[in-house]
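Kindly go through one protein, given below as sequence and tokens. The question is how this chain folds according to its tokens.

***
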Amino acid sequence: MFNTRLTTPLVLVLVFISTITFSQVDEIGTEVVNIVKPYSPTISDAFKVKETPILYDSINTTKKEVQYGIFSVPVASTFTPAKGKAANVEKTKKIKLYDNYATLGFGNYTSILGEFFSNFQISRTDNFGLFFKHNSSQGGIDDIKLENKYYVTKLDGNYTSRQKDATYLLKVGVKHQLFNWYGLNGFFDEVSEEDLPDIDAQQTYTSGNLGGSISLEDSFFEKGTLNLRYLSDAFSSSEINVTANPKISIPLTDITLVVDGELDYLNGNFERNYMNTSSINYSFLNAGIGPSLVYVNEDLTISLGVQGMVSIDLENSETEFFIYPRVNISYRLLDEQVIAYGGTEGGLEQNTYYNFKEENPFVSPTLNVMPTSQLYNGFAGLKGKLSNSFGYNIRASYGKSENQALFIVNTFKGTGEQSEGYEYGNSFNVIYDDINTLSVFGELKIEPSENFSLGINGTFYNFDTSNETEAWNLPELKATVFSNFNFSEKVYGGISIFYVGERKDMFTVLGGIFNLPFSEIVTLDDYIDANVHLGYIVNDQLSFFIKGSNLLSDSYEKWYNYPVQSIQGLLGASYKFDW
């Protein structure tokens, strides 16, 4: 048997040699052979590999586990730490908070000051508060021929409930005030008290209020307030004022839609006008809505809005519509150091007999009451804190108001028989005018420590009236300096100084026995009122205080022919306690 692996190549070699031998003996001629055959391509059948091939690759081999270790060598050290001692922490004494306090003080001019506050914790969420205050003086101003005592007494109560999603507040209060129209004019300078006409110059005010508010958490309805106030006086005047102010806040991505509502109803009457020819009745219903878009980020705050108001004079059946701008912008130019702000605002302010007598208690019960429309008040300023203890605020503004209220002294009817005690040129009326006002305000505050603070501010005004000769009883300059300090844990105090510039008023004589009807513009001098208070804390419950007012002994006239009391002193004590 032949070996197959050796036979096959041997046969191939023999064939190859034989071919070469025959080629050398017979020559073959050159010919061209053309083979013509149609091309018929074929496609092989596709098939799928059904077996998973086995890969012999080093990548699939198991990796050798690597073990890490630290070669630690001890090092000798000569450092020896010093033994530490724990520092002693001074424990501050827990401040005891009391729910009640009472204050009583006495001063010259037979002055009495009394205060009482009490808080009752009904439950974990509800409490009731009660506040009483009395301030009075028996008068005694030099060279005043009429009674000049005054009393102010008020009592307020409130009930608060703080629930998880809402806070409720209910409040009620009453107030009684007594004043005298003691500001007789110069015609009585030479008249002795015995020869004075029988003038009953006393006026009393009695008022009461009832109201409440509700604040909701996680709700479009953010807050709502409702208040009812009633006022009467010794001359059968009366006034009812009802106000409601709802507020809605709706988040819109990066912008918040805020809608403020306003409803103000006022009804009042005076039994007579100043000329005793007829009574005065007034009634207004003001309603409005003010939507605004508010955008707030780290440096920029923008509030763009308007307010639409309708004012209905129910007594005269007249209706007016108003649209006011409400734009506020603030931007941090340099962190907390420099913040620029500006904008323009307007609104309808409902004047009331209550607000007039709060600002000037010597008004006569014969007023013409109507609302004031502030068409716009544009402002711009800079504010900030140059350090943690130094802050500032600078602002300039310009605005226009229609029917702005001005106090002016009432006409002097003469020294004959008078029916009322306010008709001797010793009371004030209210007149209205359209006024453009330019003002510049500046304020600085310094608080280097918790034991001392100092502030000063001032405002310059320029008034441009439309019908009146002057902006009666409005000063062109106001300034205030105030400071609070603690000498020690036991002794504290404060200082406040007020400056008010010159004012103008117009005194008019109707005639009477003088038969000299005329008007004269009078100038009220500027004045400075300096006040100081000091206190001494005996313990957590008891403290004593002393107050001094008008320390420069300047019997200035705040209103025409109404000098104030000279140097006033008050000494008293306060006591805190629990029931």
